[in-house]
Amino acid sequence: MTQRGARAIESRLFARRENKQAAFIPFVVAGDPDFETSLRIILELAAFSDVIEIGIPYSDPLADGPVIQEGALRALHAGMTLPRSLELMRRVREKTDVPLIAFTYVNPVVQYGPEKLAQAVSQAGGDGFIVPDLPFEESDRLREAAQQEGLALIPLMSLTSKRRIDKIVKAASGFVYCVSSLGVTGERAGFADELQSFVEAVKQASRVPVAVGFGVSQPQQVAELSAYSDGVIVGSAIVRRTEAIASALNSGDEAAVTEGITALVSFCKSLAIAGQQS
Amino acid sequence: MYPDEYGRFGQFGGKYVPETLMAALETLESDYRRLSSDPAFTKQLSYYLKEYSGRPTPLFLAERLTEQVGGARIYLKREDLNHTGAHKINNTLGQGLLAKLTGKKRVIAETGAGQHGVASATVAALFGLDCTVFMGEEDMERQALNVFRMRLLGAKVVAVTSGTRTLKDATNDAIRHWVEHVEDTYYIIGSVVGPHPYPMMVRDFQRIIGDETREQIQEKEGRLPDAIVACVGGGSNAMGIFYPFLQDTEVKLYGVEAAGEGVDTDRHAASMNRGTPGVLHGAMTMLLQDTYGQVLPAHSISAGLDYPGVGPEHAYLFASSRAAYVPATDQEALDAFETLTRSEGIIPALESAHAVAYAMKLAATMTRDQVVVVNLSGRGDKDVHTIEALLGGNLT
Q: Which member of B172, B179, B183 has the closest CB to residue A60?
């Protein structure tokens, strides 16, 4: 039987660490530009991704820059809801074993109920949660609910977290998500100078793997990060490429939709490969 | 005593923010606790409140309004007479001093009606700080005068085009900006909202309204008022005047929410009467949202009340029934605006006109020996263009 939940995520990333590689972890907004197209994109990515983050679109995405905000709006306008996002997850799970993470803001968790949501994510074949506005101090209830289902609650760690590293890693499961720079999600030319030493300090303290995200958009950045990170998360660079697919879809140009997906997938492949050159 | 160590008021409050901000909030809380108990800090703050803003503000008996309503005596706490024209300066002087004394060179703020933006820009000029204000594009249109004032004061005004293009999204963008510049930037939140310690801190800076009211009404009436009425968007003027009276249960507290076109339409900002508990801008509070937690757009004629959430301590006072939260519609506010202007020669802010509207209704049900205090939180100069547009040429 295939391993599921927090353990599945951890073993994928540890396997990369052993080979001195970085796992490729794409982020996509569920239902962007619409349900079927996003399903198609995710299934193509599943062929070569180590873990996939499925973003549940939210009206007030505080930790996200303009690109992902727009992606969430497109999905919401296309009628995406939390239950539909779970349905999308289930459809992905029917076709692939790749670990799936539900990325959601905290208010939808509160409204659905942490326990009920953990069960629903588990039933949909999900393996964990990332909640960017749920710091350690507020996270007990969701962590317990996730643990009940064997799911990971992946904490974020920032360059400003130094005094907080120990308590955060102690409660971590799946991996620890290190934020590459101060700020919200979005493509960046470079990372903070102290990123490497910071990630190494987190790695030292943590019994679960460590991945880096925010601002990653180029193969050479992935290659650089793979020297010290177990995984690399890419979001805005993917969602920006979904924009083109969305406009093709709007104008009913099926060939351009396919073309857009092909371009997105080959871009992601180049990132995945960059992380695997040990 | 609320908030508790997690910044909670009962089930409300807390800190729901990106991890990047957690260390800054911890530092802010310890800086605030240290400075607010330091006599040198309180002395400086009192100095500016008195000599710069002109406190104490008067508690004025509105005789003609009282007569017209024919019930309880109506007193107006004249926060509109503060420097910059609203209660907002009480808080920005406090936080501005805090920023200055902790070595920050740069402040940011969000604003709805522009009153908090102006008060932040003013204090930034006073203390020699660089200032950037985030304001929704829609609010920039309806409060053009305040945009110009902020720019005159040397602040940079950033037009927020995301989401609803009003206060909610201005706050989102201010928080996003703070995450990126947290190391050298102080975020002056303008109301009793946001993550802990902001709701506590802003309340503490605004409680001077209630402290003065208490003293003044004792002097004038020899007793406490029967009721206090204040408008509630985020709720800082209401929290400020309520707080010193929380233990005096004989004093009834009324927060007036913007009912827009009516609480039974989908165009209002009544987060207490029509909302449910949820997380917005870092705090668990009462919120306008759908079943799955998507935040719903609010509506009010007044930009300062056009907000789908409310301060967490208000949510607590609502849940514990210590305060009542009542609606006033756009039309009721406009009527009250006109009534107060004509009866007392005081042009209130549209926000404050909501409080006046409910106070008139309430006073009419009370006897002539009873006393109602209305927090007249701001003056209406900024709103005259809106009113002019609404009345068209019909002013006679």
A: B172
B180 vs A110, A133, A183: nearest CB: A183
Q: For residue range A243-260, list pLDDT tens digits in order.
A: 999 999 999 999 999 999
Active centre residues of B (catalytic): 88, 110, 377
Q: Strand pairing partners for B185?
A: B106
Please write the tens of the pLDDT for every residue from B303-312. Answer: 899 999 999 9
Distance of alpha carbon B101 from alpha carbon B90, whole angstroms? 17
Strands A128-130 and A152-154: parallel
End-to-end CA distance of chain A: 30
Cβ-count burial of B36 within 10 angstroms (0-12 exposed, 13-18 middle, 19+ buried)? middle
| A83 contacts on B by Cβ (under 8 Å) | 292
Cα–Cα distance for residue pair B322/B245, rounded to 1 Å: 10
> What's the CA gap between A71 and A243, in Å, rounded?
7
Measured distance CA(B13)–CA(B198) in Å, rounded: 10
CB contact under 8 A, A133 and B289: no
Nearest CA in chain A to B276: A111
- Whether A156 sits inside 8 A of B280 (CB atoms) is no
Q: Which amino acid is at A10?
A: E
Q: Is the Cβ pair A179, B20 closer than 8 Å? A: yes
Spell out the long-range contacts of A45-49 with Cβ–Cβ below 8 A and sequence spacing 24 or more: A45/A265, A45/A268, A46/A92, A46/A95, A46/A96, A46/A98, A47/A96, A48/A24, A48/A268, A48/A269, A48/A272, A49/A24, A49/A25, A49/A98, A49/A268, A49/A272
Cis peptide before B3 (omega within 30 of 0): yes
Model pLDDT for residues A44-96, shown as the tens digit of each residue: 999 999 999 999 999 999 999 999 999 999 999 999 999 999 999 999 999 99
pTM of the model: 0.97
SS3 B249: coil
Probe site for chain B from A56, A138, A154, A166 (most B CB atoms < 10 A)? A138
Of the candidates A132, A130, A112, A139, which has an alpha carbon nearest to the alpha carbon of residue A62? A132
- The continuous run of DSSP H or E covering A14 comes out as helix A5-18
C-alpha–C-alpha distance, residues B246 and A171, integer Å: 39
The whole-angstrom separation of Cα A152 and Cα A146 is 6
Number of neighbouring beta carbons within 10 Å of residue A204: 10
Helix axes B88-101 and B39-47, enclosed angle (nearest 10): 130
pLDDT computed for residue B154 by the predictor: 98
Q: Does A133 qualify as catalytic in the annotation?
A: no
Are B16 and A132 within 8 A, CB to CB? no
Q: Where are the alpha helices (DSSP H) in A65-150?
A: 66-77, 82-95, 106-112, 114-123, 140-148
For residue B24, give how far its alpha carbon lies from the nearest alpha carbon of chain A (Å). Answer: 8
Asked whether the predicted pLDDT for residue B396 surpasses 80, the reply is no
Cβ of A184 within 8 Å of Cβ of B19? The answer is no
Pick the catalytic residue: A50, A64, A70, A149? Answer: A64
Residues 13-72 of A with CB under 8 A from B: 58-60, 62-63, 65-66, 69
